[in-house]
Design brief:
With about 280 residues, the protein is of the alpha+beta class. It is built from 11 helices and 4 strands, in the order E-E-H-H-E-E-H-H-H-H-H-H-H-H-H. Strand 1 and strand 2 form a beta hairpin. Helix 1 crosses helix 5, helix 3 crosses helix 5 and helix 5 runs antiparallel to helix 6.
C-alpha cells in the first residue's frame, strides 16, 4: 500500500510504494483525470454549438483545461518514473520500494483537485467519451485510491502542522467549495516562494498553512491566517505572496504587454525566491 511521509527539510512529501502500488496510483490519477477533463471539454464544445459562448471563449476555456490536465499528469510523470526505478529505491525486509519527492505546494494542489473529483458525478455517456475502455466499477476503485491518497496527505499535514491547525482548516475546507485548482501559475510561483534558500522550516510551516487558507474563501476573517502572514512577513521582510498579490503582479507585467493568458512567466516567478532546483534537498 502506498505510503506518504514528510521530507526531512519540510519541502515536500515522499510518495512511496512497491511497483504495483505506484502503478495502480498512476492508473487512478491518469484515467480519472482523463474522464474529468473529457467531460469538461465536451461541455464547452456543446455550449459553443448552442451559441452559449463565442469562439474566443471556447478557446480560452479549452486552453485553460488543457493546462490543468497537464499539471495533474505531471504527478503521473513523477510516479511513473518512480516505479520504473528512475527516482529513489530502497529495500525493506527484502521488499523493493520506489519513491519520489513532490513539493508541498503541488501536493496541496493535487489534494484539492482530487477532492473536487470526489464530488463529481459521471453518467454512462461520460465514460463513452474516452478513447480507452473504462467503466463505473473501475472508476469507483480508482476513486477509493485517490481518497486514500488524500487521507495520507492529511496525515502528513497533521505531522507537519499539528492536529489543531490542520483540523481547523479541514473543517473550513469542507464548507467552502475550492476553486483554487485553476490557479496553476500561482502554485508554480509559490514553489519558488516556499523553496527559497532563505526560508527556514519553521517559516515554511506558516507558509504552508497560509497556502491552505488561500484555497478557501474564509481566509480574510481567520486569525490563524493573519498571524501566519504576519510571522512570514516579519521574518522574511517581504510582502506575503497571497493569491491576490500574485494576480496584481501578474496583471502589471502581462496585461501591460497585451498578454491575457500565458504559462511562460519565468520573469515573474523567479522574483519570489532564490532556488537552485538542480541541487534542491527536500
Amino acid at each position: 500500500m502506498i505510503k506518504l511521509e514528510n521530507t526531512k527539510r519540510g519541502l515536500g512529501i515522499c510518495n512511496k510504494g512497491d511497483y504495483e502500488d505506484l502503478n495502480e496510483l498512476y492508473d487512478a490519477i491518469s484515467q480519472v483525470s482523463d474522464l474529468f477533463f473529457s467531460t469538461l471539454t465536451e461541455s464547452i464544445l456543446d455550449d459553443y454549438k448552442k451559441n452559449k459562448i463565442d469562439e474566443k471563449q471556447k478557446e480560452e476555456y479549452l486552453e485553460s483545461y488543457e493546462s490543468m490536465h497537464d499539471c495533474i499528469l505531471g504527478l503521473c510523470y513523477d510516479i511513473r518514473h518512480a516505479y520504473q526505478g528512475d527516482r529513489k529505491i530502497e529495500y525493506i525486509n527484502e521488499n523493493k520500494y520506489y519513491s519520489v519527492d513532490v513539493l508541498y505546494p503541488w501536493m496541496i494542489y493535487y489534494m484539492m483537485f482530487f477532492r473536487i473529483l470526489d464530488e463529481e458525478e459521471f453518467c454512462k455517456r461520460d465514460f463513452q467519451l474516452l478513447p480507452f475502455p473504462y467503466n463505473q466499477i473501475a472508476y469507483q476503485r480508482h476513486k477509493s485510491i485517490l481518497n486514500y491518497f488524500n487521507g495520507e496527505v492529511w496525515n502528513c499535514l497533521i505531522d507537519f502542522l499539528g492536529k489543531t491547525k490542520t483540523f481547523t482548516f479541514y473543517n473550513v475546507q469542507e464548507i467552502y467549495l475550492c476553486e483554487i485548482f485553476a490557479y496553476i501559475n500561482y502554485f508554480e510561483a509559490y514553489c519558488y516562494y516556499y523553496c527559497d534558500i532563505n526560508k527556514s522550516k519553521s517559516i515554511r510551516k506558516s507558509m504552508l498553512l497560509t497556502l491552505l487558507y488561500e484555497c478557501v474563501n474564509f481566509r480574510a476573517k481567520n486569525n490563524d491566517y493573519k498571524q501566519a502572514v504576519k510571522k512570514i512577513e516579519d521574518t522574511s521582510h517581504q510582502k506575503y505572496l497571497s493569491l491576490s498579490k500574485f494576480n496584481e503582479d501578474y496583471m502589471k507585467i502581462y496585461r501591460a504587454k497585451g498578454i491575457i493568458y500565458t504559462t511562460d512567466f519565468a520573469e515573474l516567478e523567479m522574483s519570489y525566491g532564490d532556488v537552485d532546483w538542480d541541487n534542491l534537498k527536500y
